Amino acid sequence: MTKKVSVTVSPKKSRREFVKKVKELSGQNLQVCYQCGMCTGNCPAAANMDVSPRRIIEMARLGLEEEVASSRTVWVCASCLNCDVNCPRGVDISKIMEAIRLLTLRKNIDQIRPEDISPEKRSELPQIAMVSGLRKFTG
Amino acid sequence: MSLAYYPGCTLKTKARNLEEPAVASMKVLGLKLDEVPRWNCCGAVYSLAEDDLMHQVAPVRNLIRVKKQGRNELVTLCAFCLNTLKRANLLMKEDAEKRDTLNSFIDEGIDYRGDVKVVHLLEVLRDEIGWEVISQMVKLPLRELKVAPYYGCTLLRPREVAIDSVENPTILREFLEALGARAIDFPESTRCCGSYQVVNNPDDIAEYTRPILNSALSHGAEALVLTCPLCDYNLGQGQNELMKKYGGFRRMPLFYFTQLLALALGLDPKVCHFELNHGKPESLLRIKNLLV
Amino acid sequence: MSVKETKKKSAATAVKEKRQVAAGLIPIYIMGKRYEVPEGLTIMKAMEYAGYILIRGCGCRGGTCGACGTFYRKPGDYKLQVALACQKTVEPDMYIAQIPFFPANRALYDFAGLTAAPEEVFKLYPELFRCVACNSCTKACPQGIEVMDAISALKQGNIAQAAQLSFDCIQCGLCTSRCFGELAQYHMFQLARRIYGARIVPRAEHLAEMVKAVNAGKYDRFLDELKQAKEDELKKVYQEREVEPMAAGEDWKPKDTRYL
To answer: Is it the case that residue C3 has pLDDT exceeding 70?
Structure first.
C-alpha cells in the first residue's frame, strides 16, 4: 500500500541535473504525463511499492532527487511493461524506471551481491533469472 | 525444410522439457529446428536506456550469425529471449547511428540492418504451418483437458513486438483448440509473474502469482500452459509457497506448450520430460487417459 | 612520433637515430619511456636489455606459464594488442605495459564434493551471469582462445565444451582485466576443466586393467630381478634396451616379448 507522502517543492530542492539526466537516459518527455494514474492502476507490483509509479514521475520531473533515490519503487519494478502499453499519453514509464535505476547503478552502488543469493537458489534459478536479476540490480 | 533456431541458455539444462518436445514435434511437422552455430546468451532483458549500446551487442551478434548463414528468419521457444532479440532487431532497423556503431564494434564484417525476422514458435505454428494442418496431424487429441493459457509479459509487450493482440490475445486458445484441449480464458492471463524479482525480492513472488493462479482456478482450469522458463519457475515456486500459506490453495500442473504439442502429435512422452514439471502433471494426464 | 615532432627533430637527433638504425636498434616504449633495443629480441629480453630486472611478470620464458601477459599499442592505432612478452618479438614504436598480476575472484571449494552438474559452476561463480557477450575477453587472449564462446558454454551448462574450448588457457588473466562484467574467466575455466577431467571424461579402460595387473603382481618377478642385479648388469640392460622407433606402426612388437 503506498503511504501518504508529504514533499516540499522549492527551487532549492529541485535538482535540474537530475531531471535532465532522467529525460536523456529514458528518452521520455516527462512533461506530457497528466498524472492520470493508469500506470499505478495497472502495475502488478504497486502493492509492494512505497511510492507509486505516478508519483515517481511527478517527483522526477520536479527534480526531487533525494526523495526518488530513497524510495524502493524502481527496485520493486519488474519491467512488465504494463504501464507502457496502458499509458494514454504514450509515455514509456518502464524506461523512466530504468533511467532512475541506472543513475544509481552507474555510481557503482549495487542493490544486490551475487553472494547474497543462497547457493540453493543459485542452483535452482533458471539462467534467465540470474542474468536478468544481475542486470537490473548490479552495475 | 528447416528454421534457424535460437535456444537460449536455460533450455539446455533447466528447461529441457521446453526444448526437447519442440525439437521432436517440429521434425514431425516437417520444419526442423536448426540451432544457430556459436549462439551466445542474448542478455535476457532488453536494455531500456537510450545510451546503452553495450547490452545490445549480445542479442545483435546472434542476429548477425543468422544473417551470415544466409537465413532470414529466426525462431525461439523462450518468450524472454524472443522479446530481447526482437527489440534489438527493431533497434538495428530503426536507429541508423546506433546500427553503425554496433556493426562496427561487433566487427563481423557485415552491415546488419535488422532484416532477419524474429518469431516465436507459436507464430510459426499459426502462420507457417497452420492450425488446420496441426489438427489433422494430432494423433492423441487432448480430450478436452481444461488448460488456461498464460501469456505473461514478454510475448505481448511492448506493442511493437507483440505476437498477438495486447489486450485480447487468442493465439494460445487457437493452439489449445487445435490440439483438442479446452482453452480456459481468464482475466489475469497477461499479468506479470514477478520476473527477475525472484532474485532480489523472492518473498514477493508468491503474491505476484496468487491472482494469476486463483483466477485460473476459479475459472475452472485444470492446468496452465506456459511459454517461458521464468514464469514456470515463479508460478511453480509460487504455488508451493501459497500451499504453505493458505490451507485451501490447490496446486495444478504447469505445462510448456511444446509438451502439449508433442503429446497430441502422439510422440513418446519421454521426450516431454514431465518429471521436470511443477504440480504433478503425470497424475492429471493419467486421469484424463492421456498417459499410460 | 607525430608529424609535428618529426619536423622539430634537430640535426643531431636525426644523425643519432640513423646510427641506431644502422646498428639494428629500434625504439620501443616501456610504460611510456623510450628505449632503443636490438631488433629480433622478445619483449621480455628487450625489457632486460633496457635495464629492467624482472622478478614478477616473467616465469617459464616458454609461453606456457602465463606470467608475462602484455598489452601494447602502436602510435596512431586505437587497437589494443596482446602478447606474451617471452614469445613476441619487438616491433618499432611499440608502447607496452605488462600485467604481471590482476585481482581476480577465485572461489574456494572442496573438489572432492563436486559433481559433474553445471550447477556447481553456477553456485561457485554466480557472477558468470554478468557476462554481456561483449567479446572483450576474446580480443584480450594471447592464446587465441574463443573466451566468450567458452563462457557462453558455461552459462548454457555445457562444462565439456567450456573445458575443451579453454584447453590452451595459460591463466595469464588478461581476459579478466578487460571484462565488462568483472568475471574471472580463467578461474571459471579451470573449474570446468577439473570437473571435466575428473567427472565427465570416460575412464581409460586399458589403464584400469593395467593397474589391476600390476597390483596383482604381473611385474613383480621382473622388478625383483632388476632390484637384485649388480650395477654392471643394470648398466648393460639399460644400454641394450630396445626403444620403440618414432615411426612404429600399430603392429610393432619388441624382440623381447617377456614384458607384454
So the answer is: no
Q: Are B21 and B258 in contact (CB under 8 A)?
A: yes
For B151, the closest chain A residue by CA position comes to A80
CATH topology of domain C22-98: Ubiquitin-like (UB roll) (3.10.20)
Mutation target for B interface from A73, A128, A132: give the one with most B CBs within 10 A: A128
For CATH 1.20.1050.140, list the domain ranges present in chain B. 2-121
Fold (topology level) of C102-232 = Fumarate Reductase Iron-sulfur Protein; Chain B, domain 2 (1.10.1060)
Closest residue in B to C161 (Cα–Cα) = B38
A108 has a pLDDT exceeding 50:
yes
Per-residue pLDDT at B114: 95
Residue with cell 553456477: C122
Domains, chain A, ordered by start: 16-107 (1.10.1060.10), 112-139 (no CATH)
- pLDDT at C14 > cutoff 90: no
pLDDT higher than 80, residue C249:
yes
Name residue B147's beta-bridge partners. Answer: B183, B223
The pLDDT confidence band at residue C6, using thresholds 50, 70 and 90, is low
**Fold of the domain spanning B2-121:** Glutathione S-transferase Yfyf (Class Pi); Chain A, domain 2 (1.20.1050)
* Chain B residues within an 8 Å CB radius of C128: none
Among C126, C155, C157, the residue with its CB nearest the CB of A114 is: C126
Burial classification of residue B54, based on how many CB atoms lie within 10 Å of its CB (0-12 exposed, 13-18 middle, 19 or more buried): middle
What values do phi and psi take at B75, rounded to 5?
Answer: -110, 140
Separation in Å, CA C128 to CA B128, B239, C110, C176: 38, 29, 20, 12
With a cut of 80, say whether residue A5 has pLDDT above it: no
Q: How far is C132 from chain B (nearest CA, A)?
A: 6
Mean pLDDT, residues C202-229: 93
Tens of pLDDT, residues C17-64: 777 777 789 999 999 999 999 999 999 999 999 999 999 999 999 999
Average pLDDT (C152-166) is 97
Please, is C156 exposed, middle or buried when counting C-beta atoms within 10 Å of its C-beta (0-12, 13-18, 19+)? Answer: buried
Question: Could you tell me which CATH class the domain B130-287 is placed in?
Answer: alpha beta
Taking any CB pair shorter than 8 Å as contact, residues of chain A touching chain B are 24-27, 44-45, 47-48, 75-76, 78-82, 84-85, 92, 94-95, 97-99, 102, 111-112, 117, 121, 124-137
Strands B182-183 and B146-149: parallel
